[in-house]
Amino acid sequence: MMSKRFVGSLCIFFFLSAACYNTYHISRDQLSLLQSAEDGQRRTVRTVDEDDVLVEDATRLAVRSKGGRRYPLTPFNFTLTETQLVASDRDTLVSLGELREDAEVQHLSTWRTVGLISLGVAAATGLILGLVFTSGEKSFAE
Questions:
Q1: Distance CA 34, CA 36 (A)
Q2: What is the DSSP string of 34-96?
Q3: pTM of the model
Q4: How many CB atoms are closer than 10 A to CB 102?
Q5: Are 31 and 103 in contact (CB under 8 A)?
């Protein structure tokens, strides 16, 4: 019984690990601004919700195909032409007709990450305490 709870907790933990990022959607025009950066490796772009988002070297960036496949990109290291997207460091060559009109910018969410780690620690503590309090004493003499 306890192993089912542990596996369930583990599944929930891994499912929530995707929630450690805030995802912002930017237009293809804003994505084209991230092909290169002349003034250092950072640039601010505008999301489709009219928010400003800072993109740096370590920022997660991706485009999705119309079928849902995710193509990660390295900021300031890809090329958008009139017909295709080329990301040589990722071995990606995709026709723009196959891609959605927006791209994803993901920033690490400190509070979600802290919450997820706290949840994992609480689940592990609960599992250990549950095992300690529900186990009986056994000896080899019995």
A1: 5
A2: TS--SSSSEEEEEBTTS-EEEEETTSEEEEEETT--EEEE-TTS-EE-SSEEEEGGGTEEEEG
A3: 0.67
A4: 17
A5: yes
Give the tens place of pLDDT for each residue, 111-135. 766 776 777 788 888 888 888 888 7
Count CB neighbours of 128 within 10 A: 10
Asked if 40 and 28 count as a contact pair (C-beta separation under 8 A), the reply is no
Q: What is the pLDDT of residue 81?
A: 93
Rg (CA), the chain: 22
- 13 pLDDT exceeds 70? no
The number of beta carbons lying within 10 Å of the beta carbon of residue 99 is 20
Question: Is beta strand 21-27 parallel, antiparallel or unpaired with respect to 60-65?
Answer: unpaired
pLDDT of 69 strictly over 80: yes
How many residues belong to the chain?
A: 142
